[in-house]
Amino acid sequence: MKKSFFGVFLNDHFVLFTSVLSGILCALYVWKGFSEGFFIGTWVIALMNFLYIPAAAIFKRKCFSYFYLVYAVILVFMIAFEKTFLFNNYTALFLVCIVIMIKPQVRFVAISLYIAAICVAFSINGESVFHFLIHLTRTFWFFGTVFFVTENNFERKKLILYEDEIKILAQLCDGKIYQKEVEGFSENTVYRKLKAARERNGNLTREQLVELFKKEQIEKNSLHE
Contacts from 165-170 at CB under 8 Å and sequence distance 24+? Predict the structure, then answer.
């Protein structure tokens, strides 16, 4: 499977991509402040987007899940303070679901924090109990769906691999043990592409990925005989 230009760009420059967008959002919220007045929420969101840029530069991808979690909680209260209906707004919930998919080990902290945030936010907004219960029910529905997917209950019939990953795995199956032995790619490139392939196919170990690839190749060859 050939990787798209945008896919290649994101894989190599995701920190740059998100930092640029974060800077644009910061500028837009400052513009919003000058146009509509600087409420506390406007300052907080602008500051969060500004701080993301140095945080991403220092911590790279490690900071993404924590940033999204904090951002989600802030969005819940932003909506509450601006007096819009909360029960049909799932922007923050979507971000929390991303956090759970990126870092499954913080799932219970993320869920607890989100539920605590919406309890307080719905109270601030003065919405009815049935609005709150509608939102809470859908929240558990979404979280349950994310748990189901992240637990690998959708069994893949075939590995999802890109051309370079196939070339690397083919060499590893031919007896090359070390990453530095793979021809046509630097050791760092081999490590990065294998890591991406492992994560894309269910957080496999390198050994599991190689074995599954080898099994697929044997099955493929047997069909052509």
Answer: 165/193, 165/194, 165/196, 165/197, 166/213, 168/193, 168/194, 169/194, 169/197, 169/209, 169/210, 169/213, 170/213, 170/217
